[in-house]
Amino acid sequence: xxxxxxxxxxxxxxxxxxxxxxxxxxxxxxxxxxxxxxxxxxxxxxxxxxxxxxxxxxxxxxxxxxxxxxxxxxxxxxxxxxxxxxxxxxxxxxxxxxxxxxxxxxxxxxxxxxxxxxxxxxxxxxxxxxxxxxxxxxxxxxxxxxxxxxxxxxxxxxxxxxxxxxxxxxxxxxxxxxxxxxxx
Length: 184
Prior knowledge:
By secondary structure, the protein is an alpha/beta fold. It has a single domain (11-183), classed as 3-Layer(aba) Sandwich (Rossmann fold). The chain is 35% helix and 20% strand. The chain has helices at residues 20-29, 61-72, 89-98, 125-138, 165-183; strands at 6-12, 36-41, 75-81, 111-117, 141-149.
């Protein structure tokens, strides 16, 4: 009997190469349960500002790539840093593109796990709250929205390895939950 491989797509809400949100995604990718394939999408910087006049085909290639990635995955994992007590504008912009055109949103009904990160003790809770509110409005299926990672810079090392056993355990639980949802 062949078992289904869970296809997870991961998006970090940061453009910065050395961002902690990106580091968390890379560290999580090293801890995948058996039967899980994770694709990290790094095309966020190529997404143009949303313009409703250009939401229909042909769309910008980066938008088409992102929509295809989301449509083709079983579960989407979004890890957002917190900028000025909210999610980064580039992430919001990308999700605006993913939610359009009306009636063909690739996120509607898509299982999504959301994680907030911050070097501050708040752990990106405000960014995660805003992201969750947006995903709810888009009508994504939220499967995980309570993982915030405070003091993230002390919990992942320079080789994208967890140096905090509690965080590693929480990420393992998240990945197991995401994998279970992907094959359900």
